[in-house]
C-alpha cells in the first residue's frame, strides 16, 4: 500500500474537548475512554488536508433522504481522512516491525479494514461512500473498496423456513461464519476474495452472483451489527468477533426519534421511486393509500428496527474507535474519539 498523506498539525494547541460522552452521557469525560469534540473543535483538526470532492461528486454519493453538503465533508470527513492517514501510516510501521521480528520481510502488506456501524436510516451508506471516495484520492491513489454485510444475510427462503423473516437484520439473520471467513481471507492477504451479492430491489441475495474484492489497500465494511461481540459457545471454544478484523471502527449515531422520522421519510420516498418497479419486493406498498403506508412504515420501525437498535446495535456503540453523533437535520454535531 502506498504511504498515506501526512498533514502538518495545526499551529495552535489542541481544541477544547466538548460534546456528550457516549459512556457517561454527559460532557464531563468522567472515566470515559473517549476524547470529546464539538463540531467546530473537530473541524479545526482538518489542518491542510485538501478537499478532493466536488458538489457533483457528493450528490452522486449520497443516499436517498440522507442530505450531505460540501460544508459537512470539510468539517467532519476531511479531519477524519487526516486521522486515518496517520493511523494507516502508523499501522504500516507496526507491520514492518512485525515482519522484522518474524524474519518475514517478503510478506505482503495487509489491508487496513475499517468497520462502519449504526442504525437503519442513520446514513451509513452515504458515510461509507464519501469516506471511500476521500481515501481513494490520497496521494499515490490507494485501492479502496467498500462492502456491506447485506450480502451475508441468509437467503429469504432460509429465513422463511426458520420463521425469522420478521427478524431480518437481527444478528441471527446473518451467515456469520461466512462473513468471518471473508474477513479472514481479506486480512490474510488473499488477492481475490468474493462475497454474496445482495439486491435491495428484490430484498434478497442474488443467486449465482458475487461481489469481488481484489487486493484492497483499505476496505470499509458497513453493516448494522459489525461491532457486536460473538455469543460465547457453551463448550468454551474461542469464537472471533467480526470486529477482531478491524483496524478502526466508526459508529454513526442518532437520537431514536430522529432515526424513526428518517426511516418513515425514506419509506415514503421509496414508495414514489424504487417500490414502483415491478420487480420490487415492496411493490405492494406503492399501491396502498398514503395513510396506510405511513402506518406500515411506523409498524416496521416499531416492531423490527427499533428493537434491533435497542437490543443489538446501540449496545455496541462504545466499542467503536470513533462515534459520529448526528443532530435532527443529519448534520454531525459532535465526535468522540477513543483514547489509545
TrEMBL record:
Identify the pathway: Cofactor biosynthesis; coenzyme A biosynthesis; CoA from (R)-pantothenate: step 1/5
A single Gene Ontology MF term assigned here is: kinase activity
Keywords of this protein's UniProt record, alphabetized?
Answer: ATP-binding, Coenzyme A biosynthesis, Cytoplasm, Kinase, Nucleotide-binding, Transferase
Cellular location(s): Cytoplasm
Q: Does the keyword Thylakoid apply?
A: no
Give the residue ranges for region: Disordered: 1-30
Show the InterPro entries listed in the entry.
P-loop_NTPase (IPR027417), PanK (IPR004566), PRK/URK (IPR006083)
Query: Which E.C. number(s) belong to this protein?
Result: 2.7.1.33
Compositional bias annotation for Pro residues: 7-17
**Phosphoribulokinase/uridine kinase domain ranges (all copies):** 113-266
Which Pfam families does the record associate with it? PRK (PF00485)
Q: Which reaction does it catalyse?
A: (R)-pantothenate + ATP = (R)-4'-phosphopantothenate + ADP + H(+)
What the record says about family reads: Belongs to the prokaryotic pantothenate kinase family.
> Which HAMAP family does the record associate with it?
Pantothen_kinase_1
List the protein's name.
Pantothenate kinase
Q: What is the name of the gene encoding this protein?
A: coaA
Amino acid at each position: 500500500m502506498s504511504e498515506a498523506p501526512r498533514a502538518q498539525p495545526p499551529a495552535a494547541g489542541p481544541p477544547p474537548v466538548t460534546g456528550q460522552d457516549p459512556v457517561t452521557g454527559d460532557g464531563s469525560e468522567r472515566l470515559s475512554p473517549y476524547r470529546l469534540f464539538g463540531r467546530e473543535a473537530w473541524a479545526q483538526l482538518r489542518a491542510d488536508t485538501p478537499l478532493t470532492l466536488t458538489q457533483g461528486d457528493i450528490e452522486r454519493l449520497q443516499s436517498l433522504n440522507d442530505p450531505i453538503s460540501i460544508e459537512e465533508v470539510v468539517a467532519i470527513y476531511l479531519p477524519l481522512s487526516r486521522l486515518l492517514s496517520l493511523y494507516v501510516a502508523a499501522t504500516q510501521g507496526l507491520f514492518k516491525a512485525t515482519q522484522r521480528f518474524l524474519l518475514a520481510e517478503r510478506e505482503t502488506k495487509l489491508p487496513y479494514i475499517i468497520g462502519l456501524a449504526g442504525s437503519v436510516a442513520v446514513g451509513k451508506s452515504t458515510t461509507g461512500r464519501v469516506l471511500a471516495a476521500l481515501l481513494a484520492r490520497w496521494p499515490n491513489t490507494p485501492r479502496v473498496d467498500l462492502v456491506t454485510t447485506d450480502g451475508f444475510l441468509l437467503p429469504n427462503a432460509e429465513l422463511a423456513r426458520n420463521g425469522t423473516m420478521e427478524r431480518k437484520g437481527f444478528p441471527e439473520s446473518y451467515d456469520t461464519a461466512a462473513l468471518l471467513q471473508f474477513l479472514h481471507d481479506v486480512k490474510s492477504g488473499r488477492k481475490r476474495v468474493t462475497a454474496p451479492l445482495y439486491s435491495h430491489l428484490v430484498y434478497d441475495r442474488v443467486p449465482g452472483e458475487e461481489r469481488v474484492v481484489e487486493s484492497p489497500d483499505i476496505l470499509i465494511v458497513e453493516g448494522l451489527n459489525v461491532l457486536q461481540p460473538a455469543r460465547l459457545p457453551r463448550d468454551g471454544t474461542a469464537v472471533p468477533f467480526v470486529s477482531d478484523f478491524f483496524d478502526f471502527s466508526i459508529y454513526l449515531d442518532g437520537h431514536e426519534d430522529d432515526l424513526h422520522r428518517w426511516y418513515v421519510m425514506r419509506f415514503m420516498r421509496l414508495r414514489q421511486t424504487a417500490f414502483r418497479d415491478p420487480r420490487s419486493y415492496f411493490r405492494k406498498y406503492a399501491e396502498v393509500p398514503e395513510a396506510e403506508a405511513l402506518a406500515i412504515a411506523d409498524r416496521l420501525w416499531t416492531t423490527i428496527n427499533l428493537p434491533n437498535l435497542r437490543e443489538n446495535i446501540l449496545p455496541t456503540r462504545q466499542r467503536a474507535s470513533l462515534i459520529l453523533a448526528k443532530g435532527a437535520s443529519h448534520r454531525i454535531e459532535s465526535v468522540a474519539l477513543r483514547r489509545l
